[in-house]
């Protein structure tokens, strides 16, 4: 049973605007209703007294308005704007009232600008729109594909039955961050189940009769599409020797099948809580020595743990280099398995 050195993998994955209402602007005094003159504000003692009163009111507004609207409001700038408008309009009948209203709006605007915006809500990981060439088409065997990371070493990761096509994108992102130079390719299965669910074949092969035959036909077709993914990678300059195929549950079944039937040997195969498809044993002789990572939960109620142990023994007897990772738990990919997965990839895809 193959082993490797320790490695760690990082774990996988509006502020309300406050403030009270602005205070009402001061009303125009009788002195401000005089007829307009042709010059600027008068310098007479009466005008000087009026300006002093306005400045006193302005000072009060600066002290009290800021507390009412909020400590972060830029009251001084707004009040100075009111004062300037008022002095220019002291000779117009209702101009000061209009200027004061404008100034009040400026106070509110300044307050709004000063309040810090709350942190953006973090969105749940989802599959990003695929770049050109990643939509369904001949280049990827007709499959929708999402990629994470960049490099010339590739891990093709397949999701399980009934999961959405982007189900394992967070795991792919985690692995790409942990391993610079690793590119994770995540195809979505071709068949749709309930809701956003996908399947590589449906119904499960464990059923008998016509349903089992239908499932096998779908599995064969899906395998050919996945071989198309490998051909696309090779056309991009990534040969099978730098590719690992792996998956979870039904994706693990497809990974083993692709590894056995691919045109060229792969760098390795990973089966997480999965099992083989019928007829796999007779083909393993041509893949003797291939590194294989198997993990399975002892409390798995979907695919029995005993079946995974039996597959491990048969793979070892056929010459496979098996890394066996049993764990306490059910049908899943716990942290301990993710850590071993990263170590396996680092070893078999070492430059």
Write the layout of secondary structure elements.
Blueprint: H1 45-69, H2 75-88, H3 95-114, E1 145-148, E2 153-158, H4 169-178, E3 182-187, E4 191-192, E5 198-199, H5 210-235, E6 243-248, H6 250-261, E7 268-272, E8 291-297, H7 305-317, E9 321-327, H8 335-348
Parallel strand pairs: 2-3, 2-6, 6-7, 7-8, 8-9
Antiparallel strand pairs: 1-3, 4-5
Helix pairs in contact: 1-2, 2-3
How does CATH name the architecture of the largest domain? 3-Layer(aba) Sandwich
* Name of the top-level CATH class of the largest domain: Alpha Beta
Q: What is the arithmetic mean of pLDDT?
A: 72
Tally of individual domains = 2
CATH topology of the largest domain: Rossmann fold
- Assembly context of the chains: single chain
Number of strands: 9
Shape: globular
The strands making up the biggest β-sheet line up spatially as 1-3-2-6-7-8-9
Strand composition percent: 5-15%
Structural class given helices, strands, pairing? alpha/beta
**Distance between the amino and carboxyl termini:** 22 Å
Order of helices and strands: HHHEEHEEEHEHEEHEH
Q: Describe the sheet with the most strands.
A: 7 strands, mixed
What is the rounded Rg?
Answer: 35 Å
